[in-house]
Amino acid sequence: MCNALFPPIVLPRFEVLLSTPVHHSITSGPMVGTVTAKYTYGMSVKGTLSVTVTANHRRKNSITKLFEINGESKFSFSSLELKELMMNRQRAHDSDSSVTGPLDINVSVKEALTGFEQKHFADGSIESHQLSFFKDISTSMGLFCQMVQ
Question: Name one Pfam family in it (predicted).
Fold first, then answer.
């Protein structure tokens, strides 16, 4: 007979999902996203949402915003906020004034009743141009691409 003791398995009380564009053009307006927090049985989570956008892994230049969440919450970061964030990142490394580069998007939902916190993250990037694809029906070429500045 085996008398082995195993630690109990603790499942997350709720899940956090983040929906945001992978690439965002600085010229296309604010970067928007949606955070969804639901218990494993489907009910909405009420609490506080923290969204942090970080532009540099070494120096941790970041912007954090707090929101209330009740199952789902939308967030946005203006083009001006993102430009300032990216410019601060560039000043820390070199004289290049580019506002492009990688971003980390970290979200954290803190449940109002228990204080239990669940996190989720995504990678993204800021681009200087936006590409739009159109179907050209006047020729047999099909799709063409237009760069928007």
Answer: MG3
- Give residue limits of the domains in the chain: 14-148
Residue 66 in contact with residue 74, Cβ under 8 Å? no
Q: For strands 31-39 and 72-77, give the pairing.
A: antiparallel
Name the phi and psi angles at 81, rounded to 5. Answer: -60, -45
Distance from C-alpha of 123 to C-alpha of 6, rounded to nearest angstrom: 36
Cα–Cα distance measured from residue 77 to residue 51, given in angstroms and rounded to the nearest whole number: 10
Q: How many CB atoms lie within 10 A of CB 49?
A: 21
* CATH class of residue range 14-148: mainly beta
pTM score over 0.85: no
